[in-house]
Amino acid sequence: MTSPTMTFTFRPLDPLKDAELLHSWVTHPKAAFWMMQDAKLVDVERAYTEIAADEHHHALLGLRDGVPAFLTEVYDPAHRELAGLYEPRPGDVGMHFLTPPTDTPVHGFTRSVITAVMAHLFEDPEVERVVVEPDVRNKAVHALNEAVGFVPERVIQKPEKKALLSFCTREQFTKAVAA
After folding, report:
1. How high is the pLDDT of residue 5?
2. What's this model's pTM, rounded to 2 decimal places?
3. Residue 141 in contact with residue 116, Cβ under 8 Å?
4. Vertex 169, ends 166 and 171: CA angle to 5°?
5. Which of 29, 96, 123, 139 is the most exposed place for a label (fewest CB within 10 A)?
């Protein structure tokens, strides 16, 4: 995805090679909703090695101009995260994304990231709808989700949090980013 000042690409996350970088991101106070604040490096390696081995869950590193810039996790909500919490449809895909802390914030960066992630997901013709379940307290991500077309359905109770179950169809995304 290209914006006037940002070009993003994606590559599979390497759980061992990328663990140190990820550790610095997921344990930062800014990433409190990622729920890995107290993780040790070995915990991050283990978590992402498990994701890499999971046929229903994978992680991607987002690159800005070739440099690691954000993390995306993609999962099958019928088998992970939301299994048994809603009625999945064919073409549903679940998504998480994390932008790391920075000393030099770029206005619009996080919105550009979520837009790029959504565009990447919808490049797959099998994907009809993206499902997210952010913490109900994460108002910043709710606003970002709305900006790219997500519509909240209801609050659900997950084992680790109260979450706002939200959906975005291909058509909703296209309309939101064209506005």
Report:
1. 57
2. 0.91
3. no
4. 140
5. 29
